[in-house]
Amino acid sequence: MQITTVGLDLAKNIFQVHGITEDGTVAFNKSLRRAQLLDFFKNLEPCLIGMEACGSSHHWARQFQRLGHEVRLMPAIYVKAYVKLGKSDAIDAEAICEAVTRPTMRFVAIKTEEQQGVLFLHRARDLVVRQRTQLSNMLRGLLGEFGIVIAQGIGSAVKFAKAVLDGDCPSIPEVAIDVLTNLSNQMVALHLRILWYDKRILLEGRRNPQVMLLRTIPGVGPVTASAIVATAGDGHQFRNGREFAAWLGLTPINRSSGVREAVWDLVSGNHQGQQPRALRQQAGHTTASDRRSYQLKNVLLCRSHPHKTLNHERRISACWMAASRDGAAVDVFDVNRRFVRFTTTAERTKGGKRRLPHVQSLQIQ
Questions:
Q1: Are 328 and 344 in contact (CB under 8 A)?
Q2: Where are the alpha helices (DSSP H) in 3-112?
Q3: Distances from the Cα of 157 to the Cαs of 145, 312, 314, in angstroms?
Q4: Spatial separation of the C-alpha atoms in residues 92 and 51, rounded to whole Å
Q5: What is the largest distance, in Å, between two alpha-carbon atoms of the chain?
Q6: pLDDT tens-place string over residues 118-142
Q7: Does the global pTM surpass 0.70?
Q8: How much is the pLDDT for 329?
Q9: Is 201 helix (H, G, I), strand (E, B) or coil?
Q10: What is the pLDDT of residues 167-210, one digit of tens each?
Q11: Which among 253, 211, 206, 207 is positioned nearest to 232, based on CA atoms?
């Protein structure tokens, strides 16, 4: 009996596998312990394995690929539609096995160990940034009770903490000064740790040609470029920049029915996780200190469209994908009130007359 498709419900210790044959007959639906999982798939002929894209899914996908199996990861929200009445590991594994065979299913690209190593770095940095923000808010709240106001911005909070450590303490009770000194030490330590993460991200980015290509886009720095490559990989899972923008969550909510069309504001969440949400926010803030990037956003936002900011973010994300997927050093070809186009450096040296297929949607006339 040849097993063609297996649905695997992941867990920490107890895994559920559901296998079917070519005609859809259920061959098995059983649970396996973690130590038994690899041995079980070693004894199977190469087949299609479906899993939800969740914790440890990329690790197991790489392990199964080494055994010769074809592995496909799916967002859990897309698998939910195939779950029958009830909730159990066996039902979930059956739903995964059914969903992975659907021709219209959308799959998640399997990340390499190098990608996940860089994501490790980014997520640790995000944690420290959130801790620094929390500490800054606490300092402002506590000092506000004594009528002391710290200027806006995280830089002002760090500057105040350094001044406290240098002995410039406000006139508050002694017990409060002890607590303030402790919190200031913590604030400065977190700030220095973030600077270390930034330098490490910069170093890792210089070793990656894709990151260096993405940095040729105005307004894209080392952190954003590294996050794009680590999260989306080479981008070949997206057919165009518009799909990449939709994956980031740059799509309005559609509530249309019949002849009545209703398109609401931008979706507030994204099923892909925290990193794409951060990239989506960065697309909306792509205004670096250089003059070209500032002009670029002004031109894109001046177009008469009901979703001006959304259009800007979509075009910026499409520009990201053009550099990441097609290996093009993207730059602003012409920026004025009437014409904007992104092109490659090589194309620009030839006069910039021919439109490249992957940047065709970025032209605004």
A1: yes
A2: 34-42, 57-66, 76-79, 89-99
A3: 16, 32, 34
A4: 10
A5: 82
A6: 999 999 999 999 999 999 999 999 9
A7: yes
A8: 55
A9: helix
A10: 988 899 999 999 999 999 999 999 999 999 999 999 999 998 88
A11: 211
